[in-house]
Design brief:
alpha+beta; six-stranded antiparallel sheet; SMI1/KNR4-like; 6 helices
């Protein structure tokens, strides 16, 4: 596994075409408060993402929504971490897998309440999602706005 902090920080340069700054991350206290409320430690890739770039709306909310730590919760035995932009699907991590260094992400079809493995960890799934945003032109909107 590559360094999860560096991978998270690189999303800013790769997709937003600007340098990463400390202000892009959420404070450690926000993460700790969520972990205490949930009674768990967030998996390292998810934790590093929020600490590195969790305050960057253009990464967290531009299409699908990566849940803010205060909004992360358990449903159906999964730690819910992300919602599709129209709430058709959601993504989570099996509670039993939370102690793994890079647990597999599962997708739930919210219409049928069926879960499907993404066969990828969080940062790998996120990179493929952000690449797809490039393919459909989402980032062009961001570049024009800045």
């Amino acid at each position: 596994m590559t360094n999860v902090t560096e991978t998270s920080q690189a999303f800013v340069q790769t997709y937003l075409q600007r340098s990463w700054t400390v202000a892009d991350g959420l404070p450690e206290t926000v993460i700790r408060k969520a972990e205490a409320r949930l009674g768990i430690s967030l998996p390292p890739p998810l934790r590093a993402f929020h600490l590195s770039v969790g305050a960057v709306a253009d990464l967290c909310n531009i299409h699908n929504t990566i849940l803010h730590p205060k909004d992360i919760d358990f449903e159906e035995g999964y730690l819910m971490i992300m919602d599709e932009n129209q709430s058709v699907v959601s993504w989570g991590i099996k509670k039993a897998d939370l102690k793994k260094p890079d647990p597999i992400i599962w997708q739930r079809n919210n219409q049928a309440d069926k879960w499907y493995s993404e066969k990828k960890g969080f940062l790998e799934l996120l990179a493929s999602m952000l690449d797809w945003y490039s393919e459909i032109g989402v980032w062009k909107h961001i570049y024009k706005a800045h």
